[in-house]
């Protein structure tokens, strides 16, 4: 498969703080990849390096270009939503749409208007008159209407209520994504994007510690709810993790036979959040 993003051995320090420590990432064309990690893991630093906003040691290619030296050309095919939407406070919504339509050849104003129609944002309002959540909605409506090959999202729905967050991810799948586009998303709201992702990458202390496709996750990992009398039999199978839950014990396994686990209790596919805790482990 063609790599849309390929980063190798990225390293970035800020004084004595190591933000990236040999970080590797490959994102293939037509995939939706979730970059998941705790606070301070290096997610935003990695995204900024990929976008050419930050110079790092190592090698980065995005759409077969160097994002640092060829950023102007690259930005014609890449869209980015940061964790904080920054728009000119003085501008009216209608003027902002006029401006983007005038400067970006791949902006579809009609599509942007259709996104805004799902909100309460008035075209005559100035940005300074909008709430934080409405500014984010406006930013999303602009970026989602640009025909980009790569969409990079860093906490894209921060500050939005649960209804609009659901609408956003539904729109991402139904109105934006196709198999010629690629999406790289970083968020803390893992449960809300789980159904959207094709692949997941865990980052911790500036390093990639786990990567897996969602198809592989379903076939490779299993969690079983075990009654007390079956707990020792479950431990004998060497689980990745065990935790207490409502009087029973949940065990998470890698590569274990589901048929064998079914004899111990109720088997299910673990969530990304459960797998994340099991992989990173220990106190954070």
Poorly predicted ranges (pLDDT <50, ≥5 residues)?
none
Describe the largest sheet.
6 strands, mixed
The amount of helix comes to 25-40%
Going by CATH, the architecture of the largest domain would be 3-Layer(aba) Sandwich
* Domain unit count: 2
Instruction: Please report the number of helical segments.
Output: 11
The fraction of residues in strands falls at 25-35%
CATH class category label of the largest domain: Alpha Beta
- Which structural class do the helices and strands define? alpha/beta
Give the topology string: H per helix, E per strand. EEEHEHEHHHEHEHEEHEHEEHEH
Describe the overall structure:
By secondary structure, the chain is α/β, with parallel strands linked by helices. It has two domains: 203 residues, Rossmann fold; 64 residues, Alpha-Beta Plaits, CATH 3.30.70. The strands form three sheets. It has a six-stranded mixed sheet, sandwiched between helices. A four-stranded antiparallel sheet has the order 11-12-10-13. Helix 6 links the parallel strand 6 and strand 7. Helix 4 runs antiparallel to helix 5. The longest helix has 15 residues. The two termini are 36 Å apart.
